[in-house]
Amino acid sequence: MSRLRKSLVSLALCALFAGSAGAGQALASHSQLTYFEGSSDLLEPSTRSATVAKLQALGVKALRVELYWANVAPASESATRPAFDATNPAAYNWGSYDSLIAEAQRLHWPVLLTVTSPAPRWATSNKKAPYITRPDDKDFSEFMTAVARHYGAQVSTFAIWNEANHPAFLLPQWNANGTPASPRIYRGLYQAGYEGLQAGGLAHPRVLFGETAPTGYTNVRKEHAKGLLHDVAPLAFLRGALCLNSSYRKAGSCSKLTTTGYAHHAYTLPAGPYYVSPQPDSVTLGSLSRLSRALDLAARANAINAHVPIYLTEFGVQSKPNKQLGVSVAKQAEFDAIAEHIAWSNSRVAAFSQYLLKDDPLGGAPGSSVHGGTVGFQTGLEYTSGAHKPLYAGWPVPLTVSRTAHGSSLWGLVRPAGGATKVTVLVRLKGSRTYRKVKVLTTDGAGYWTLNTSTRGQLWRVRWVSPAGVGYEGPPIAG
Questions:
Q1: What distances in angstroms separate CA 455 from CA 24, 38, 365, 458, one per listed residue?
Q2: How far apart are CA 112 and CA 117, in angstroms?
Q3: Quick one: three-class SS letters along 32-56?
Q4: For the chain, which residues score pLDDT lower than 50?
Q5: Is the pTM of this model over 0.85?
Q6: pLDDT in tens, 390-411
Q7: Which residue range forms the structural domain that includes residue 419?
């Protein structure tokens, strides 16, 4: 959503793509689903139509929508649970969610529905704002039954809780002795939510586990009270939620969980696409193999099913004017494309994402959300004013360029294309002021293409014309 995010921004990308000299070649064997965040402009009736048209032109084909439990529940501000049948969809005020999800259905866009906090006040243990402390499992199960009955046929995949390893979304994160508390709370919510979806008529629901923020701590020192407001590192969180010790051995009292995939949020730092967190239990895009290994070890311990895919359900590159985490808007377009290529190149990754069409207003410094403040995300394709950044032109036709021993290796995507299409690759050589055509390529059926060429350019870009005659030209990418 284009609300002021409370989530603490984290980390990054990595890995790269090797290339060798040769002819252009479309890759027909690789693909991934890309979700676009369902922002407030989509939920607001007055702006929905214009925003949908804009997303169609950008090539959007799937949405992620965050459904806030408290936003639709009856008497959500009351400390006393109202008398109502919590499994009955008619008891809830679904509001603009109905219109947005119906529009996605009309457009044949798959919807990932992340059901998350804040909870109704009456469903939390301490009844205190921001209503995220130990939500009641039974209440949540009944709510998810209503969700399944209301949206079951319209939602392709569900996810349970957004960034449950972050103190802005679930409390407590830590026990008094400095060991993680949130993983076991989340396990209860996940099991309750899954059972609720089944009770609502979905015999085998597609449900993502995790939705974790990328960084955090494995433990904190109990004498430091502020430490109790840190994130739990995602791998420590994963182990705790699956009843695994540090050696990935499972407690016998815990049953195996079923999941469609592991959802994770892998953000970049200004350091760029190759950044790897030094914390071994943190997972940035640059260290995604840590998550793959952890999932495999968990499956070996019979804690989850084997070969669980990874869904990168929230991602974006921060740009200026964010002073702490932003890069230039030119770098934003370059880094975003590299990130997507890294995800596409990883056979374990089933989905990628773009968080925000339009920037949030600037918020506080990273970390302020745990003290009641807000953290604005500048990951959008547009500024808060609606003016376009280079990423607006780059997102429909992302391009990456790397130098090889014999020239340059390029990768790209024509996102708005409905099938195989032709795309023109342009280069500006050092000392030149104009671009020249390098090659006209045919993409694969999903719009992806690669090119290995002996040309070494200073700047590259791509040009595509849709069947309707609409022209797309990406921003310059350094070679």
A1: 12, 40, 43, 10
A2: 16
A3: CEEEEECCHHHHCHHHHHHHHHHHH
A4: 1-29
A5: yes
A6: 999 999 999 999 999 999 999 9
A7: 403-478
